[in-house]
Amino acid sequence: MSFHIRPGRTDDLNQLVQIYNHYVEETHVTFDTEAFAVNERIQWFNQFAEAGRYRLLVAEEGEQILGYASSAMFKPRAAYSTSVETTIYLEPAQIGKGIGFQLYGDLIDQLIAEETVHRAYGGVAVPNDASVALHRKLGFEHVASYHEVGYKFDKFWDVNWYEKDVSGNGKAPDHR
């Protein structure tokens, strides 16, 4: 499979929303419970830039978006400004092909190069063995568990939180 990774663009929004809506409607991995219309995700999209701590990367093959990874505000208070929350979503058919490792790894590399970011956090609604393995493979460490913090599909779900030092003091695993 030949794909490349690039910053997200406004014209990607239709495909990004389709990918995300799959997880909203079919899985517990996001706690959104209603699918989004494209125009409802414009504000979400507008938080990202090509440089800086808030980024959106897409993996693309031809005109097809295979998945995306992003870093966004961790918490709105000023003292949290050097921390980001990271996330990744892939087209379901692309899971297990190594795309997520390269895509999320590229995001982490960019965060390490960004001098204003100190820590990256990823929340994983469990069970989700693939996401746990991805975070661990990229050097994230389990730091917290929130028990029964989300309620979806008539069930309570736990969320495990993973942390990675992206201050540049450590070296990211090679994901190429």
Give an overview in words.
The chain is α+β, with helices and mostly antiparallel strands. The chain is 24% helix and 34% strand. It is built from 4 helices and 7 strands. The chain has a 7-stranded mixed beta sheet, sandwiched between helices. The protein starts with a strand and ends in an 11-residue tail after the last strand.
Strand order of the largest sheet: 1-2-3-4-5-7-6
Determine Rg (CA atoms, Å): 15 Å
The coarse silhouette is: globular
Structural class: alpha+beta
Number of helical runs? 4
Given as residue ranges, the uncertain stretches (5+ residues, pLDDT < 50) are none
> What is the helix fraction of residues, given as a range?
10-25%
Keywords:
176 residues, alpha+beta, 4 helices, 24% helix
What's this entry about, in short?
The protein is an alpha+beta fold. It contains four helices and seven strands; from the N terminus they run βααβββαβαββ.
List the helices and strands and how they pair.
Elements: E1 4-7, H1 13-26, H2 42-46, E2 55-61, E3 64-73, E4 83-90, H3 99-113, E5 119-126, H4 129-137, E6 141-152, E7 155-165
Parallel strand pairs: 4-5
Antiparallel strand pairs: 1-2, 2-3, 3-4, 5-7, 6-7
